[in-house]
Amino acid sequence: MTVALGVDTGGTYTDAVLIRDEREVLASAKALTTRHDLAEGIGNAVAAVLAEAGIAPEEISLASLSTTLATNALVEGQGGRVALILIGFAESDLEKHGVLDALAGDPVLILQGGHNYAGDQKAPLDEESLAAWLAEHGQDVSGYAVAAQFATRNPAHEQRAAAMVREITKRPVSASHHLSSKLNGPKRALTAVLNARLIGMIDRLISRAEARLGELGVTAPLMVVRGDGALISAEFARRRPIETILSGPAASIVGARWMTGAVDALVSDIGGTTTDIAVLRDGRPAIDPDGARVGPYRTMVEAVAMRTFGLGGDSEVHFIGEGLKGGVTLGPRRLMPVSLVAMEAPEIVHRALDAQLRQSAPGEYDGRFVRAVPGIEAGGLSPKEAALLERIGAGVRPVGEIIRTRMEQKPLRRLVERGLVQIAGVTPSDASHVLGTVAAWDKEAAQKALMLFGRRRTGSGNRLAPEAEDMARIIVDQLTEQTVLALLETAFAEEGEAFDLPPEVLARHVLMRRGLEGHKGLVRIEAGLNQPVIGLGASAGSYYPAVGARLGCAMELPRHAGVANAIGAVVGRVTIRQSGEVSAPAEGRFRVHLEAGPEDFSESEKALTRLETHLSELARQEAEAAGAEGIRITVTRDIKTAETEGREVFIQAIISVEASGRPRITEG
Fold first, then answer.
1. φ and ψ at 496, to 5 degrees?
2. Quick one: three-class SS letters along 156-209?
3. pLDDT higher for 229 or 617?
4. CA-only gyration radius of the chain, Å
5. CA–CA gap between residue 376 and residue 81 (Å, rounded)
6. Cα–Cα distance between 179 and 186 in angstroms, integer?
7. Rounded CA gap, 469 and 451, in Å?
8. d(CA 241, CA 410)
9. CA angle, residues 460, 465, 471, in degrees to nearest 5
10. Which of the two residues, 222 and 468, has the higher pLDDT score?
């Protein structure tokens, strides 16, 4: 008998599951995610599932972790302070693909150097300027990203710059050619920036998780779920944390397929921070050919074709005062639910809520609290940010006591983006407590917070909601509406036949809305989803039946829907993909672009064979290092040619290699 342990750290809960012989769920358990130290929640969940199953920790032969940490960090704009070193690019390239937005004010250095399309040096690397800049500013950031022009054709300048960064600063560095073999320098630069920003967070998570599992007696090596649903070693994930974006959602799709046997369906996974939706076709999720999109960023990371929406059980509830009726909208930022923060500091929270309810008029910060997150590196703060963090201190405080002027709102927002503090406020989770569909935390605190929120005045001058229950229904109805729109948007995006409008416009089109309502006038309009939806996540049972009814489709809620991510973490395979290119810089010359530099051949088949052999060996080595056994190698060639003067001319070839195998099982 083999027993596998799967763990998923979500925004609110950490799940653990034990699976026997890849066929049977022995036990599952949940614990609150501990944002200050994720390993604490991991340990609590694992201890609970071991106790429930009556399994000794040394019997576990495989341990695997899926996490929404990287995804949530990018959606919420969190992560360490980094620097970008651009080689051979112009300053205008920063405007492309959101590089400047991703930097968010972090430093950037533009240097001479880089290569051309053929992999030949365009200009020497300006090492003198780089060395001087690193000596002056090297310790101001937690990590570095390096991107050189045409580094996928010749990575020499990226390699040299990365070596100098390590030598001078001793900081981790992300080289863009390690993250993607595709052309598009600014997009690779963006991916490298995000990878550098995540390195510290993922390294802390893996290190602490390994330590906590060891303390519990789990000796099996730890693996991590990648964004395409495959498993990778913990060490691989440390080097390329960007590849764990969409890790949790990808694991949920693998888990959904394992639990239901579904062939064609939409999979919708609602967590605390995001709702992640993918389409399952022929039993397999598609890989996004354009790279994973998370929040505003389109990366070059290979991941499942999934749309991620800032909508979850802990999404921030925003008041809409316009119009006679007014209303709310949800997300994309996650808040700590008031009902949850009240469990941590009941006296402070209830005293503040009661005082706010006694006020005759609603206040700007009613029902909102702030708490510091210990253990997060606080370097690079401005004086205002540092002063505000010191004022917040170690406990829970009402936001109204912390913010003294409107000018302090921006520093507080920056502290939240850095992950140094958390804001608590009204969320759908609070609404569910008020309505009685969830009973995990402090219902009375949720009622008080929703009463405060409902006192706000709409355009008609009336209160948004007279009672806490009315406010709760407004919030839950809005979550249903936004989930419906998210599913429709995904469905339109994945339709085989293209429409004339973007998916987000089609999902909100008046004809679509009338069709969902079954309009029957002179025109009869009917609309809905033509595939079932598999609803996943701990709160899916509370919210998704109404979504299925609205869309007129079957809504399948598997028995273990609440731990689908943890299940997917241990039923996947280890898969490593490598790709490379052969170009033709001149007639009769075929250039293979390798990590060590370009190699030229006089025959195309010799060049293709050289690259195929190199990539196959590289993929096999990485798969073995990632813990795979029984490895199978699959090779595909995409050769582009053109006909010139009656003869076929070689233009370019892309070779892709996939090494896939079972996770190596240790003896329990």
1. -65, -35
2. HHHHHHHHHHHHHHCCCEEEHHHHCCCCCHHHHHHHHHHHHHHHHHHHHHHHHH
3. 617
4. 26
5. 12
6. 13
7. 9
8. 28
9. 140
10. 468
* Bridge partners, 634 (sequence order): 658
Residue 485, both tokens = 């729109």
Instruction: Let me know: does 316 contact 416? Beta carbons within 8 Å.
Output: no
CB atoms within 10 A of CB 393: 12
Report CA dihedral (200, 204, 206, 209) to the nearest 10 degrees: -170
Tokens at 200, concatenated:
């510290």
* Structure letter (DSSP) for residue 493: H
- CB under 8 Å to 541, separation ≥6 — which residues? 535, 557, 561, 562
Residues 6+ apart with CB under 8 A from 394: 372, 374
Map residue 619 onto helix, strand or coil.
helix
Write the burial class of residue 132 (CB in 10 Å: 0-12 exposed, 13-18 middle, 19+ buried): exposed
The answer to whether the CB of 235 falls within 8 A of the CB of 228 is no
For residue 422, name the pLDDT band (cuts at 50, 70, 90).
very high
Other beta carbons within 10 angstroms of residue 631's beta carbon come to: 16
Beta-bridge partner residues of 457:
463
Using the structure block, give the residue that is written with the tokens 């999902």: 507
Best CA proximity match to 335, nearest among 377, 294, 365: 365
For tokens 């083999």, the residue is 2
Q: What CA–CA distance (Å, rounded) separates 280 from 347?
A: 48
Nearest to 654 by CA among 577, 579, 545, 587: 579
- Token output for 569: 């973490």
Which helix (H) or strand (E) is 14 found in, with range? strand 13-20
Is the preceding peptide bond at 332 cis, omega within 30 degrees of 0? yes
Higher per-residue confidence, 4 vs 295:
4
Question: Kind and range of the H or E element at 607?
Answer: helix 604-625
DSSP E strands, 530-601: 533-536, 555-556, 574-586, 589-594, 597-601
Token representation of residue 204: 């802390």
Q: How far apart are CA 176 and CA 185, in angstroms?
A: 8
- φ, ψ dihedrals at 6, nearest 5°: -115, 135
**Which amino acid does the sequence have at 243?**
E
DSSP bridge pairs for 534: 267, 556
Any alpha helices (H) in 261-324, and if so which ranges? none
Are 444 and 424 in contact, with CB atoms under 8 Å apart?
Answer: no
The percent of residues in the chain predicted with pLDDT above 70, rounded, is 99
Which residue from 97, 115, 61 is spatially nearest to 597, judged by alpha carbons? 115
Residue 659's H or E segment, with its range, is strand 647-663
Give percent of the chain with pLDDT exceeding 90.
56
Pairwise pLDDT comparison (203 vs 657), residue with the higher score: 657
Place of tokens 């008046």: 510
Name the phi and psi angles at 12, rounded to 5: -115, -45
The whole-number average pLDDT for the span 420-437 is 96
**Residue with tokens 């994309």, as numbered in its chain:** 332
Give the strand pairing for 3-9 and 60-67.
parallel
Residue 569 burial by CB count (10 A; 0-12/13-18/19+): exposed, middle or buried?
buried
pLDDT in tens, 515-571: 999 999 999 999 999 999 999 988 899 999 999 999 999 999 998 998 898 998 888
pLDDT of residue 667: 54
Q: How many CB atoms lie within 10 A of CB 298?
A: 17
pLDDT digits (tens, 9 = 90+) for 342-353: 999 999 999 999
Query: Is the per-residue pLDDT at 1 higher than 80?
Result: no
Nearest partner of 418 among 35, 32, 9, judged by Cα: 35
Q: How far apart, in whole angstroms, are the C-alpha atoms of residue 529 and residue 486?
A: 12
